[in-house]
Each structure stands twice: as C-alpha cells, then as structure tokens.
Amino acid sequence: MFPIDASSIDKSLPVPVGTQLHGLLSYTLAFGGMADGTKLPSVRQLAADLGIAPMTVSQVYQQLRDEGLVEMRHGLGAFTMGARQSSVSEHQPINALRADIEAIIGRAESLGVSTMALVSMISAQAQLRRPTIGLSTVFVCIFEGPGRDYVAQIRPSLGVNDTMALVTLDSLREPGPERDACLEADLVITFAHREAEVRALVGIEHVLGLRFLPSQGTRQNLAGIDPRARVAAVTHFQEYIAIMRPSVREFAPHVSDIVVTWSSAPDLRETLLGCDVVIYASGADHIIDLVRPNVRCFEYRHAPDPGALENIFVPHLAELRQQRIAKESGGGAKEEMVRLSTRLNAAS
Fold it and tell me: N or C: which end of the chain has fewer CB within 10 A?
C-alpha cells in the first residue's frame, strides 16, 4: 500500500479535498491489500498529516462507514472491515462435519485403512456424485469492457454448472432486466467499495464485495517507464484523482515527473500534448485519440485478488451450494458421511 501523506491531497485542483480524501481512502481500502482489522489514523492525526480540517476527515470516515468499508469502534477509532471474511469462514458447512470426520478417521484406523486410502475413497465417491446444482451469479461492474475481462478471470473459480452474468452499476439505477437478474441470482459480486451501493440500489443482501489489485500487466508497464519521462495519469472520476500519482509511484518509484488530471478536464488536450507517457484509468480510454503518435499509452487495469477468490469467493459459493443441496436433497454432505461410516462398519 502506498503511503498517505501531505502530498496525497492536491489543494490546487478544482476538486474538494474531502472528495479527494474519500476517493483516496476508498481506493486504498478496496484495492490496497490492507489487512482486515487494521487501525486507521485518528481523525486528528490524519487531518494534521494532510493539512486539512478534522471535520473533513471525520465526515469522510463516516461516509466510509456507511459504505461498509470501515468500522467505527467507540473510543478506539476507525478500523478496516473484516466481518465478511470472518463470517464466511466461521459458518462454512465443513465445521458442522468435524465430529463426523474425526469419527470416520478413527474407524478407518481401527480397520487398518490408511488416511490416504480413506481420502481416495472419499474423493472417488465425491466424483461419482459431483453436484449437478449450478449457482447463478451476477457481476456488477462499472464499465462493460473491463467487466468482461473480470468475469473471464473469475469464471475459473465457478463450479462446472455455475453461470455468471454481467451488468453495469448504472443499469441498476432503474427497474429493468439487469435489476431482475440480481434479484433472481444466488449471489451478486462486485467491487469491495461498491458492495453497500449495490445492496442499496437493488434492495438485496446476497451481495459479496471482492478486493481487486493492480494487474500484473499494469505493474510491468509502470516498472518499464523511462525515469526521465514526463507522465500524465488520467482518471475517469474526479473523486479518484488523488490516487493517480501514488498509484503510479507505487510501482514506478523511479518516475518523478507526474501530472494528474481527469478525462473531462478543460485543459486535458494540452496536458497530454506535453507528456511522454500517458496512463489512464479504466473508463477513460477515449483519451487515446488525444495522445500524440508514438507516445506510450496504457490502461491502469486491475484484476481480482487471487487470495480473495480462494479464501472468500470459493468458500462462499461452496456454502451456498451446500445449502441448495441440503434443501433439495434433504441430506447433503451429512448423508454422505453416514453412508461412508456405514460402509466402514460393514467392512468390520
């Protein structure tokens, strides 16, 4: 995660400092890889570090709390949210089977069946009764082009019969087929910092926010910038202008000459004409037409955090699938454990 200091807020920009700070913190919380439960600076400390009013920082913290990105603990301050991860891990169906698993392992050992043989037996049995129940999921993106890429990156984590549809956040603001798709889905996925917004727009609870990280291609492109280059970093949303410079420097610390702007700024064309490298955030790709020939230009693209997919998304799908299996077959994994136990008893 890049540092947040006085240089993070540019008071010369026609963007309120509170808007800049909200964009900076929401981006850092959603994309910066901060550990859950991390304590954020106090209101007074952050205000002093950035040279802005404590009231501004307090209002931003309250907004982040309302968006589900931070937790305010009375007398202690603001902390990054960790409830989603802990709630998933604590209530996974496997926890209800621990006693049964221990009993079957003990029974197998008493019969001289090795643990590896038991695992193979369970694995083979599972393959024979691979779940046919597919889950319907929806990914809510900001921009459709990058959204299609994100779906392609998430899809390998789905089950063989699962589906994933793509809708944009703007399409959910009015009733229509996109909103209906979210209402009917087993799970709606979006960016961590948009989870509360999606939940409020559609009026549903089955929304899971995932963390995204700068893609490998983005990191390589940034690392390859000539240190002498004058760089323009362009965001689509004014709110996120404060994150552009530190985002570039995180992976290109050797670059010092960075000017930041947004895709509808009145002086955008002049800014781009004076730069050797242009980096644009997702959604600002129309600026490519304004870049001089032979000037290096690339998108600052993100990708789903593999850790979030493995430790949050996949277990969450497993939990939903097991609930469906148990509901539709009336026994699920519990019955399978009973059958295995019966077979072991018969072998004795």
Answer: C
